[in-house]
């Protein structure tokens, strides 16, 4: 049974005229008769009785009429919904993003997207960068924004910008008078960072290990916003991604480039191959790519 057969049957059942139904459906009468015959064969019995002058529904045909109407209504609803989805007039996307991006730069892209496609619902999940990749891989979300992962089998990574880490200090800190800081100078003071297994913590530890610099952590926290707040309260110093610049300035702390060594990672969108994305998610990917084309650098933070 197919939708064309159902439409043919319902048209004949309502008009009780093959000629009128054929004209309404823009079919020849033989083609209409074949459609009805095919439906009857598929269902296993007669739906119509036909003489040279009259057409009538069998009891089974009469029972099929309300069912056929429901099927056609559901089909029309499905067709309308899919057309709206392909036209980006309805739909929903889910995005996982590391907190430093979700709390600073992502709202800009969301606003741009919403202005273009106001009927698309957007769900945002701010999680650690490693979890972002997991969420995309297990289909919990379509798009993720994170640091470029070392392993992303079956996923595609679209670079957005280069994120250089910066040092942050309390106001009136002794090092605030310097325009650029080294790790050797910074680590003379209480150091605050994220808890393991944060990728930010891992990058800092690995970079310093390669440079033969010992890292002693005075305080650690689960979220970068907490780290920044602790710095603003004068509890110590920290090194964070430059993506956090908005939160840094809101907390009124000092930011400076950090060198010897410097740390930088590429931030981008990770997702399944583009051909596997929904139309709505593909449009969001394009929005993110268009919105973030300039690098987030230390030199910018020093200005």
TrEMBL record:
PROSITE patterns: HTH_LYSR
Single GO MF annotation: DNA-binding transcription factor activity
Signal sequence region: none
InterPro entries: HTH-type_LysR_regulators, LysR_HTH_N, LysR_subst-bd, WH-like_DNA-bd_sf, WH_DNA-bd_sf
Limits of the HTH lysR-type domain: 1-58
Domain of life: Bacteria
Pfam family, one: HTH_1
UniProt KW keywords: DNA-binding, Transcription, Transcription regulation
One Gene Ontology cellular component: cytosol
Gene3D superfamilies per UniProt: 3.40.190.290, Winged helix-like DNA-binding domain superfamily/Winged helix DNA-binding domain (1.10.10.10)
PANTHER family: HTH-TYPE TRANSCRIPTIONAL REGULATOR YBHD (PTHR30419), LYSR FAMILY TRANSCRIPTIONAL REGULATOR (PTHR30419:SF30)
Family from the record: Belongs to the LysR transcriptional regulatory family.
Protein name: DNA-binding transcriptional regulator, LysR family
Organism phylogeny: Bacteria, Pseudomonadati, Pseudomonadota, Gammaproteobacteria, Oceanospirillales
